[in-house]
Amino acid sequence: MKVIELLYLGREYPLGYAYFRPRLHKAFMSKAGLQDQTEIHKGIEQAEYVKKEIEAL
Q1: What is one Gene Ontology biological process annotated in the Swiss-Prot or TrEMBL record (predicted)?
Q2: Which of 17, 23, 46, 50 is deepest in the core (most CB within 10 A)?
């Protein structure tokens, strides 16, 4: 999962890219300091879930 993939999908987000991009950045920055492997994997799983939800729109 790459941030670029989510940014690409966000171009067609119903509320617009200008709405989507800052929120995506905030979400990733809130997880930037994770050190615990289990927390990192949970964050990755959450990002995958978000990706699937955006694709479903």
Answers
A1: respiratory electron transport chain
A2: 50
